[in-house]
Design goal:
The complex is a heterodimer of chains A (467) and B (419).
Chain A: H1 2-13, H2 28-38, H3 40-73, H4 75-78, E1 82-87, H5 102-109, E2 114-123, E3 132-137, H6 141-145, E4 149-152, E5 164-170, H7 171-178, E6 187-191, E7 203-206, E8 220-229, H8 247-258, H9 267-270, E9 274-278, E10 289-293, H10 299-312, E11 317-320, H11 323-328, H12 332-365, H13 367-375, H14 380-416, H15 428-454, H16 458-466
Parallel strand pairs in A: 3-9, 5-8
Antiparallel strand pairs in A: 1-10, 1-11, 2-3, 2-10, 4-8, 5-9, 6-7, 6-8
Chain B: H1 2-11, H2 13-50, E1 55-59, H3 82-92, E2 96-110, E3 115-123, H4 127-130, E4 135-138, E5 155-160, H5 161-167, E6 179-184, E7 187-197, H6 204-209, H7 219-222, E8 228-232, E9 242-247, H8 253-266, E10 272-275, H9 276-318, H10 321-329, H11 334-372, H12 380-407, H13 410-418
Parallel strand pairs in B: 3-8, 5-7
Antiparallel strand pairs in B: 1-9, 1-10, 2-3, 2-6, 2-9, 4-7, 5-8, 6-7
Helix pairs in contact in B: 1-11, 2-9, 2-11, 2-12, 3-8, 9-12, 10-13, 11-12
The chains are: A alpha+beta (467), B alpha+beta (419).
């Protein structure tokens, strides 16, 4: 292929590049551009070094810059401001966070932070239905989890005047229990078996409106529906911010499990079969799940502080944050970008050496063309300018193609990543910086060949060509 | 022939120097990439193997409340207790090297300035034999070290080097003999540091930088981070999280695991067995998969380098088509024409190799190593293969067009070349 392009180049070189009107010589940059355009394959091959140099510097800047911006702008949606805490399974019941920890955690979060905690128990649903959940939460749950009420209101914390606790049902559960009828105001019973039957766990029953009221007691808890929590919009991401539909997510999960990070399912948050009640109604002070929201730029520090505080209090927590953000937000990452800069300089060096070589060789090979131009009246500075411009234009081609290739590769990288946090932005600052370095480098690399090409007198050149 | 090969190089020093530089830079970039990738892969292999391929960890699955957990007990099943942990050593006898009970907890270690959340491993002095990285300073726990019965008395402790560096970044050994605060189970105590265990993980800097989920890791897995504080085990107080069994030979796994299973089953216990050799192999497989991907990038780099050097060589030789035709017209044979070019390309390619090696060494020493910290490694194939590729490219790029033009009618070539 290269031999073919050289043959073609020779044929094209045979056509004299004569200006139509000697009195109005074409500017050097136009002649240089025409030369580059006449040999597209050569231009491409020579620009390669610079192309890869620019691509190397553009890819990380595009991905890191874009993702960091997105992490801040879409924090709530992508969970970059969210910290989730659960007790480590192997720690035993003593290791679970407790109610008394919440004021301390709230203080750690500061005025801008938000917190919600859950206490959960399994709840058998009326016969034939899947198992549901008895979830003790607080009013901030909806805001912190990004959920909304489809109808009614959040259950009050106040003790019930008629003995019936207020509850809010998740929409799928409300539909399963009451069909299309409004569940608001309907009554339920939570039956707590005692004695040997206690092992079966509490059970939920729907009260027939026409039936006589059941008096509350230790084994019977009366409930009244005051709200319906809308079905959660499927965020499509797990608690690490990984898109569950992407092919590499499974690989990352396997890797995490190998390293002891076990992203276990959270059925009470995902099944849509929860009965929400004020947390004070659910017995005990153990907390099964805590959600904290803070400024994304501070989430790393908050995570460390929360862990230290809970461990100092004798708890054994597991803390989850957005996996991609926890890496992207680290300052150490900027240190690793130096490597890209090292390879940028290597590729730049190769690119400029090739460019200088090409111009040096072209200066010798194109003596006839130079001689003709000198004979037509072109000044030495015109020849010098033409070669200089050729170098700069070849660098420009490398820069433009490098930016396009770099952005293309960055886009592929982002599309393949299991985290939805990753995106790309045009890193104009980095592009300008890389382009300036390469253009200056190209000017330097072109000066000597351009000087050599321009120094010969026309007669001398014709003599050399003739010999 | 040699003279004819050397003369063009001497007559065109600038062109020759740029050709050598182009070859050398291309050569250096491929060497740097291969050395960096292979060095990283070997370091991960070494680190994974250093965690111990001769260890089986028998760990208790513990459920909490009514929520689903990893592993659970069936009816009548219970966790490993202290008595079983002590009996296991006698049951296995000389078939294993050591049986070490351990309890793992998350604790807070603090000095006057800094705080570190870390894993506490309450264990026996035999654990010192399991750690293969050795002691950096001081000593490991010995049979005479006991957890004090009276609260408030200092607890003898040994720190892993990585933990010690949290408190003494430049000289972790200086912590020996000092005291630190320890928050264990919500109670404050004091530990006296007896020794510091040498860090077996050489890639810690990178693991920490890219491990955003260490705080989501199960406590039993955190012990393998080697940021532990080791204290004496109290059989009567510390319910074991598990037992480490060190084998005499890593290949004994298949024979020992069924015996462990039988031992614990007979006592109604149901631990899960974490065979570190299998786990290490799994980690290495994953690393190998990713390093294969990395090799794809240097292969692309090689193709780019080949294209660039090929282009430049071609242009260099194309300039001399007229000269070749003239020599042919003077009666030179094809071999007379081609051999000097072959010699020139060989000399330039050979000159580029020390230049390339030098540049590669420079890039690694000043650009790569200070950032990545791991020793680069060049596999023999890269050491011999890359120069051969550069040489072959130079030969092809010089000889193919020269051979082609040598076959043509000299008059036609001269006519075309001069227009």
């Amino acid at each position: 292929m290269q031999a073919a392009f050289l043959r073609r180049e020779r044929e094209e070189d045979a056509i004299p590049d004569v200006s139509p009107t000697p009195s109005r010589p074409r500017p050097a940059w136009r002649i240089a551009a025409a030369e580059c355009a006449r040999h597209p394959l050569r231009t491409l091959l020579v620009s390669q070094g610079m192309l890869w140099a620019v691509a190397l510097i553009v890819i990380p800047a595009a991905v890191i810059g874009g993702s960091r911006r997105q992490a801040m702008e879409r924090a709530g949606e992508l969970g970059t401001d969210l910290l989730q805490v659960e007790p480590a399974p192997a720690a035993g019941a003593d290791g679970a966070p407790r109610e008394e920890d919440l004021p301390v955690l709230t203080e750690l979060l500061g005025p801008g932070g938000r917190l919600s905690a859950l206490r959960v128990e399994p709840l058998a649903l009326p016969t034939g239905r899947a198992s549901g959940w008895w979830i003790g939460a607080d009013p901030s749950f909806l805001e912190v989890r990004g959920r909304a009420l489809a109808a009614g209101r959040w259950p009050a914390a106040a003790p019930p005047p008629d003995g019936a606790h207020e509850v809010a049902l998740e929409a799928p559960l409300a539909a399963a229990l009451f069909g299309e009828a409004s569940p608001l105001g309907r009554r339920l019973l939570r039956l707590v078996p005692v004695g040997a039957a206690g092992e079966r766990g509490p059970r939920l029953e729907v009260v027939d409106p026409s039936a006589p009221p059941v008096p509350p007691g230790p084994a019977v808890q009366g409930l009244v529906v005051v709200g319906v929590v809308a079905e959660p919009e499927d965020p499509g991401v797990d608690r690490f911010g990984l898109d569950e539909d992407r092919s590499f997510t499974q690989v990352v999960h396997e890797l995490m499990e190998t390293l002891g990070v076990s992203p276990r399912p959270i059925p009470f948050l995902e099944s849509g079969l929860g009965v929400f009640v004020d947390r004070g109604v659910v017995e005990g002070d153990r907390l099964d799940w805590i959600f904290l929201r803070a400024d994304p730029s501070e989430i790393d520090a908050v995570e460390g502080a929360v862990q230290d505080e809970l461990v100092a209090r004798g708890r054994t927590p597991l803390l989850y944050t957005n996996a991609a953000w926890s890496i992207l937000s680290r300052p150490e990452l900027d240190g690793y970008m130096v490597l890209h800069t090292v390879f940028f300089w290597v590729a730049t060096g190769i690119g400029l050496a090739v460019l200088a070589n090409l111009l040096l060789l072209a200066g010798t090979r194109r003596r006839r063309e130079i001689a003709l131009r000198r004979a037509e009246g072109a000044m030495r500075r015109d020849i010098f300018g033409q070669f200089l411009w050729e170098g700069v234009l070849l660098a420009a081609v490398g820069i433009v193609l490098g930016v396009l290739v770099g952005m293309g590769l960055a886009w592929i990288r982002v599309a393949l990543d299991p985290s939805v946090l990753f995106t790309i932005d045009w890193p104009w600052g980095t592009i300008a910086e890389g382009a300036a370095i390469l253009v200056v480098g190209a000017l330097v690399a072109s000066v000597v060949p351009a000087w050599r090409a321009s120094r010969h007198a026309p007669v001398e050149l014709f003599r050399k060509v003739g010999s | 022939m040699i003279k004819n090969a050397i003369l063009p190089i001497l007559h065109h020093p600038g062109r020759s120097a740029l050709l050598v530089l182009t070859f050398g830079l291309g050569f250096a970039s491929v060497l740097t990439m291969v050395a960096t990738i292979e060095g990283g892969r070997r370091s991960i292999h070494d680190d994974a193997t250093a965690l111990g391929v001769d260890i089986i960890a028998c760990l208790n699955p513990v459920s909490i409340g009514p929520l689903p957990v990893v592993g659970s007990f069936g009816e009548g099943e219970r966790p490993i207790d202290a008595a079983a942990a002590l009996e296991l050593g006698d049951a296995l006898g000389d078939d294993v090297h050591a049986v070490v009970p351990m309890r793992l907890e998350l604790v807070l270690v603090r000095d006057d300035v800094r705080t570190a959340t870390t894993t506490l491993m309450a264990t026996t002095h035999e654990f010192g034999g399991v750690v293969r990285s050795g002691i950096l300073a001081g000593r490991f726990l010995d049979a005479g070290d006991h957890y004090p019965d009276e609260p408030g008395r200092p607890v003898p402790a040994v720190l892993d080097e990585a933990l010690a560096r949290d408190f003494a970044p430049d000289d972790p050994a200086r912590l020996v003999g000092t005291s630190l605060s320890l928050f264990r189970g919500g109670k404050r105590g004091v530990v006296t540091v007896l020794g510091v265990v040498r860090d077996p993980i050489s890639l810690r800097k990178h693991l920490q930088a890219f491990d955003g989920q260490s705080q989501a890791r199960q406590v039993s897995a955190r012990r393998l981070e080697f940021k532990n504080v080791y204290v004496p085990w109290r059989p009567e107080v510390d319910a074991p999280s598990g037992v480490l069994v060190q084998l005499n030979d890593p290949d004994d796994v298949e024979a020992i695991v069924p015996r462990l299973d039988a031992f614990f089953s007979a006592r109604g216990m149901k631990p899960f067995f974490h065979v570190q050799r299998t786990w290490v192999q799994f980690v290495i497989d994953i690393v190998d998969r990713f390093s294969s991907l990395s090799h794809f990038f240097w292969a692309i780099g090689l193709i780019v380098v080949v294209a660039l050097t090929g282009t430049i060589s071609l242009m260099s030789v194309e300039e001399r088509f007229g000269e070749v035709a003239l020599r042919r017209a003077e009666g030179a044979t094809r071999l007379d024409v081609v051999l000097p070019l072959w010699g020139e390309s060989t000399i330039l390619a050979l000159l580029s190799m020390p230049v390339g090696y030098g540049i590669a060494q420079g890039i690694i020493a000043f650009g790569v190593r200070p950032i990545l910290d791991w020793p680069p490694y060049l596999p023999p194939l890269a050491i011999w293969g890359t120069p051969v590729v550069v040489l072959v490219v130079a030969w092809c790029a010089y000889l193919l067009p020269a051979r082609w033009v040598a076959r043509l009618e000299p008059a036609a070539v001269l006519r075309e070349h001069r227009g």
